[in-house]
């Protein structure tokens, strides 16, 4: 891997140099280990931020198609098939899930593609150690938004209690 020079604050450079001397390592090793430790400590926030960035980019690309579909339906969202409703409200659904603590939603099952679909199943990543996943509120809000029954399958919980089922669901899952 090619090396690059990184500018650091004078005091930080002095601390890295002192640590390197005491530990009999290079400053490069000290800084690399410090960054790795920082990443480990903040992994949850880093993953959440990366997922939010990816979701914002994906939402922006689908907004034109959603506007076209809604216009074709005369502004009546509920008259559209579920697959088209998902296109129209995708960014709202992603924001709703993020607000309630859900990340990286993926659609599972095939019923959502039918013209008369009345069920949407989502595979959602959550953090069981955080208090931000409010599943009942998320279900209620998603059902009001889409006008269909919504079921969530929690990746974290399934990984703990039913890893085989999680593996099968992840194989069939498609991004929202």
Please give a quick description of this structure:
With 176 residues, this protein is of the alpha+beta class. Helix content is 60%, strand content 12%. The protein is elongated, with a radius of gyration of 22 Å.
Radius of gyration: 22 Å
Give the C-level CATH assignment of the largest domain: Alpha Beta
Count the E strands.
4
Determine the structural class based on helices, strands and strand pairing.
alpha+beta
Element order: H for helix, E for strand:
HHHHEEHEHHE
Question: What does this molecule look like?
Answer:
The relative contact order is 0.10. The protein has two domains: 10-41, no CATH class; 43-175, Beta Polymerase, domain 2. Helix 1 crosses helix 2 (27-41) and helix 6 (155-161) packs across helix 7. The two termini are 36 Å apart. Helices cover 60% and strands 12% of the residues. Helix 5 (135-146) links the parallel strand 2 and strand 3. The radius of gyration is 22 Å and the shape is elongated. It has a four-stranded mixed sheet with strand order 3-2-1-4, sandwiched between helices. The chain has helices spanning 10-23, 27-41, 43-72, 82-99, 135-146, 155-161, 163-172, and strands at residues 103-108, 119-125, 149-154, 174-175. The protein contains seven helices and four strands; from the N terminus they run ααααββαβααβ. The chain has 176 residues and is an alpha+beta fold.
